[in-house]
Amino acid sequence: MIHLLGTKDLDKQTVIRILDTAEEMSQVASRSVPRLPALRGKTIVNLFYEDSTRTRTSFEIAAKMLSADVVNFSAKGSSVSKGESLKDTAQTLAAMGADAIVMRHSASGAAQTLAENGWVDAQVVNAGDGTHEHPTQALLDAFTIRRRVFGPNSTGKALDGLRVAIVGDVLHSRVARSNIWLLTALGVRVTLVGPATFIPNGIAGFPVDCSFNFDEMIDSEPDAVMMLRVQSERIESSFFPNSREYARHWGLSDDRAARLPKSCLIMHPGPMNRGLEISSSAADSVTSTIREQVANGISVRMAVLFLLLSGAQRISQ
Fold first, then answer.
1. Which of 48, 61, 140, 315 gets the highest tally of CB atoms within 10 A of its CB?
2. Which range, of 118-122, 137-141, 201-205, 246-250, averages the lowest pLDDT?
3. Phi, psi of 245 (to 5 degrees)
4. Between β-strands 209-211 and 189-193, what pairing exists: parallel, antiparallel or unpaired?
5. Using a CB cutoff of 8 Å and minimum separation of 24, what contacts does 307-313 make?
6. Where exactly are the structural domains of the chain?
7. Same fold, 12-133+294-309 and 135-290
8. In Å, how far from its chain's centre is CA 85?
9. What's the rounded mean pLDDT across residues 212-239?
């Protein structure tokens, strides 16, 4: 059975294939009838145990643009609130004819558990599991960078030689982990930037550089800065003195944004804490890709669902 559980095992060729397919899918929205019949007759279940706006909505739109049937399942108000296990919930949905399950869960490794334990005869897409991975977010980030740097229809291109800084709460960020593996597979030099309390232990085992000084990183003229949300819901102790101190040392303020190279992309996976990790003017600037990332998410998720369910290509084992 083929799934998309993370980015660590995706090689360069596979990533480029997904991005190239997303480039083709991006043209569907401009059609008079923005639909492809590729997944007609397939049923995709969005199984979300955590709240989500961008990811769940874009997966739903992507599936419908491929003519699939979509079932949105929220743990709130379901039998999960009565104590039903993940196994029983997934098997119930699979028994109803799900061909693919797109799952977000608060527990790291939940998607892999669902995929590899033989609980369901369906393909699993990880839409974010705890602090572990969020592969489609990393794919849409890479797609956005490639389009900004090389323009639309940049088929076949990687990102060799580009420099991307991932800034902020790396420790709790599944987006950061997926981007580390995927961007480096594409030839990007990644630097993690943040307070020591937000940099994971064992960082030496990651293919990245590390900096504890945001201003010095800006002076090195990165091609993109990816600001991360401070995930207060996952923080159980004090990782920084207060919000004002965090913004002063680690936030992308107006002054810091003005010092970035004119071509430097400003990115954020959302939702944003304006005034904490990023200023409003930086988020809304001409070099900001934040709205593009949301729009590109539909094309990328169309590509993932198409490659997994159409039988055209294999993504990952």
1. 140
2. 201-205
3. -65, -40
4. parallel
5. 307/17, 307/18, 307/21, 308/2, 308/3, 308/4, 308/100, 308/123, 308/125, 309/39, 309/42, 309/44, 309/68, 309/99, 309/100, 309/123, 310/38, 310/39, 313/17, 313/21
6. 12-133+294-309, 135-290
7. yes
8. 26
9. 83
Residue 78 pLDDT greater than 60, yes or no: no
Cβ 199 vs Cβ 258: under 8 Å = no
Cα separation, 302 vs 299, whole angstroms = 5
Query: For 147-201, how does the pLDDT look when each residue is reduced to its tens digit (9 = 90+)?
Result: 999 998 889 999 999 999 999 999 989 999 999 999 999 999 999 999 888 888 8
CATH of domain 12-133+294-309: 3.40.50.1370
- Looking at residue 210, its amino acid is C
pLDDT for 313 equals 45
Helix axes 12-25, 135-150, angle to 10 degrees: 70
CATH entry, 135-290, from 3.20.20.80, 3.40.30.10, 1.10.10.10, 3.40.50.1370: 3.40.50.1370
For 133-149, write each residue's pLDDT tens digit: 999 999 999 999 999 99
pLDDT at residue 317, rounded to an integer:
41
Is cis: bond before 271, omega within 30 of 0? Answer: yes
Which residues are CB-neighbours of 232 under 8 A, at least 6 positions away?
none
Q: In what order do the strands lie in the sheet with 265-267?
A: 209-211, 189-193, 163-167, 224-227, 265-267
Give the predicted TM-score (pTM) of the model.
0.93
